[in-house]
Amino acid sequence: MVRRTQAVEQLASLRLTPNFSTWRPCDQVEAAVGWKLAVERHNGPTALILSRQNLAQVERTPDQVKEIARGGYVLKDSGGKPDIILIATGSEMEITLQAAEKLAGEGRNVRVVSLPSTDIFDAQDEEYRESVLPSNVAARVAVEAGIADYWYKYVGLKGAIVGMTGYGESAPADKLFPFFGFTAENIVAKAHKVLGVKGA
To answer: Which of 44, 66, 148, 173 is buried deepest, with most CB atoms within 10 A?
Structure first.
């Protein structure tokens, strides 16, 4: 791998820019919704942060497709009160869903939240935000290939983040993801720590 300076803080800085809307879709459906809202927005710019990778398409109900426009929504849910919530954006959604399957296989109620546009989600009413990220579920893990610090506002001090803490590298994605810990296994390990699993 070749070390080079990369803008790992790009997403966080865009999201913190006033009157600037940022989308990081996990597949073509979220990208289409983000594009539509960007075209229809007349009071400020919008950035769509897309991936060079081939991304798996996620099945959704019609209601879930509608909720994409709210910036964040429940993509997968085991039902009942979640034991843990996994939050992801963009290309990391695939490994997050894999991690959710592994955790569900352990008998845990797992919720996966897609948060393609944090600024739009933050602008929703409290009732909707609470329905997606209930405040009585402190066990949370956020997953994004960007600077980790931004995500503490969603996971809190008791949560965990699979993110970047330094500059990136240059190599194929299948080598970079494991190098930086972006694997389903690492997400599960973080989840175990948050849940207080012995030996985690």
So the answer is: 148
Query: Please, how many CA atoms are within 13 Å of residue 152, restricted to the half-sphere of its CB?
Result: 5
57 within some domain: no
Q: How many Cβ atoms from other residues are within 10 Å of residue 51's Cβ?
A: 16
| Structural domain contains residue 157 | yes
Tokens linked to 161: 């983040």
Q: Are 120 and 33 in contact (CB under 8 A)?
A: no
Q: What sections of 69-114 are H helices per DSSP?
A: 93-105
Exposed/middle/buried for residue 176 (C-beta within 10 Å: 0-12, 13-18, 19+): middle
Exposure pattern of 134-160 as b/e (b: 16+ CB <10 Å)? eeeeebbbbbbbbbbebbeebbeeebb
The SS3 call for residue 122 is helix
Closest CA relative to residue 41, chosen from 114, 150, 119: 119
Task: List the CATH number of the domain containing 31.
Answer: 3.40.50.920
User: Would residue 111 count as lying in a domain?
Assistant: yes
Tally of structural domains, the chain: 1
Mean pLDDT of 20-35: 97
In tens, the pLDDT along 98-137 reads 999 999 999 999 999 999 999 999 999 999 999 999 999 9
Q: Give the integer Cα–Cα distance in Å for 4 and 2.
A: 6
> The domain containing residue 125 runs over which residues?
2-51+63-195
